[in-house]
């Protein structure tokens, strides 16, 4: 008799019909003889509706009150799912984040879990109940309601699986698993039967939006065995664990991509040595995430600096840089948008130095210009023009042997 | 500097615009130099929507899960109102029932408050914050979320006013106060400037749905000064306190009425002595509220018994009586519906024995037949045909000197 943590996202619980479907899914797991803890998100678009209400009241709602507001979303789902399970003859009990003992740091909107007091959940499991926990939320030591930010429900599920020493954490979603690339755009995309935590981290970070990187990180740190699978189709998903146990022979495991990238260039930086850190400290202080950074080292007295950001952050980035023009001491700003990032990911790359070279070769052969490059031990990213993105993904997917044999 | 508890019901917080209006109302109270604790209900029809969702999942949803579901409604309102106050430059903080320290008995759907731990609220008041509390909800000693049942938010407000020793508890609603009768039906209805707790209790119990009787009872027990007033119009409301301080000369203070009453008659009761208690114990055990009871005492061996119920309970009442026909030992059941109850209320009646007689005289003079009668120290009720109800209210309102001079 094992213990399984199941997580169902907003789409999977988006209607009464779907909640009943989830209840069936939970029931089947109990019929396999397992104890089940279920983590759910808010129903479909309900969080968006709450955010809209808040924005009508205040353009910048207080973060504490925003947490108070948004946590009602999951509370609705846990109650409804518990009713659905009761209706199917199962004994179920729902817990809000605080009832489940999920303690976070005292930060609103993006809190990290500091500990989980599993006593309440364990006592319900011990009497044979299915425990349903509201994802995305916790409580501070002082009794303030907090939320975990993006990917919060995934994180709740993985953290609970770790704290409860569950045998497995199943992440149910609207896709059937993790693919070699996005199957909505690339027909030859193939489902992976297993990936390693590190590969998943890179794939998640790169916009393969199946599972939040924070949750993967958590799973990696506590060695929680994850499976990403479909809540609609009863088929095998993708297992994420320490080492990808299958298909080890493949160097590249997936091709990720992300649109709406802008490259910002700061021209004529007077003192490149100090201004580099000053620029990024300033941007970070304004919550702008910078991705790839390239500094041109020249013999001249001034240097140029380029970095990539999400296009949605462009206005704010320009404002921050212009507001600080004097202290940063540069001549001019330049921005190029309509760019995209294409990345190849795979643990096998560590021991295969030729992979990046092969990537550029393939792109060049297809007349795709590379604007920026970044590499890590298990990933190579290239910024290309947005119009070339899907073509780049397709040819790389093919060249690294990821496509269906079909 | 005083402490005022304000309560706003579902209609008063039914939209973003109305929540902003409530915020303005709270702000004005703080500008008078008072500390304010605000109790709010769920927005407009949101509770109904949640109930509908639950019913789609289960015809008889688990009560614990129903509480879990419904308490999200007020949590949404407290967060939005707090945002609205922050937006207006006030320091505000919202509390769910459990955060506000509202402890209830371990009953779901209709829990009574057992104690209020005011530490959290008081510490926020002491730093000058407006505290917004979710009405209708509490928590058991074991950390289970409960609801207070009908009139719950009124009860929360009054209980908080008592626990915090507030100077006053203002119940904001969609009417401007307590009237001599329902102004929607009787044009000559007049607003009362003050009524006693006992009068309000009778008026509330009799369907003048401004304030829940439970809250009035609570206010009476803890001597909380209440005022019922409009959240839309800035005019004086009706004060409810120990003694009605104004208009003492009037014997009758108001005329209340209630539609959809059914009279049930049990014919041929064999053993009227024991069966009287058996019948009402059986009905109470099935949650059927019986109002007026009349037993005909005859010389015969069998007796007849009549009682009034809400028409909506008729089917259930007949079922219960028929299921227990053998033990109750009666011959036949009869039911007359399309009845209504009209009541005159006033503390002055205690010392005016002629009031009931005057009432019947007035009704008789208008050809209105009285089907059943019930009296208490401050109330006389008469059951009449529904078609005669408004006529009865009108002539009684006039006869007891309650009408506008207009």
From TrEMBL, chains A, B:
- Name the chemical reaction catalysed here: L-aspartate + ATP = 4-phospho-L-aspartate + ADP
Keyword tags: Amino-acid biosynthesis, ATP-binding, Coiled coil, Diaminopimelate biosynthesis, Kinase, Lysine biosynthesis, Nucleotide-binding, Transferase
Biological or metabolic pathway of the protein? Amino-acid biosynthesis; L-threonine biosynthesis; L-threonine from L-aspartate: step 1/5; Amino-acid biosynthesis; L-lysine biosynthesis via DAP pathway; (S)-tetrahydrodipicolinate from L-aspartate: step 1/4; Amino-acid biosynthesis; L-methionine biosynthesis via de novo pathway; L-homoserine from L-aspartate: step 1/3
Q: Which residues form a coiled coil?
A: 311-338
Q: Name one GO molecular function term.
A: aspartate kinase activity
The family database entries (InterPro entries) matched by this protein are listed as: AceGlu_kinase-like_sf, ACT-like_dom_sf, ACT_Aspartokinase, ACT_dom, AKii-LysC-BS, Asp/Glu/Uridylate_kinase, Asp_kin_monofn, Asp_kinase
* CDD domains in the record: AAK_AKii-LysC-BS (cd04261), ACT_AK-LysC-DapG-like_2 (cd04923), ACT_AKii-LysC-BS-like_1 (cd04913)
What would be one Pfam family of this protein? AA_kinase
Domain ACT per the UniProt entry, residue ranges: 264-347
Q: What does this protein do?
A: Catalyzes the phosphorylation of the beta-carboxyl group of aspartic acid with ATP to yield 4-phospho-L-aspartate, which is involved in the branched biosynthetic pathway leading to the biosynthesis of amino acids threonine, isoleucine and methionine.
Please give the family membership noted in the entry.
Answer: Belongs to the aspartokinase family.
**By what name is this protein known?**
Aspartokinase
- According to its UniProt entry, this protein's organism is Neobacillus ginsengisoli
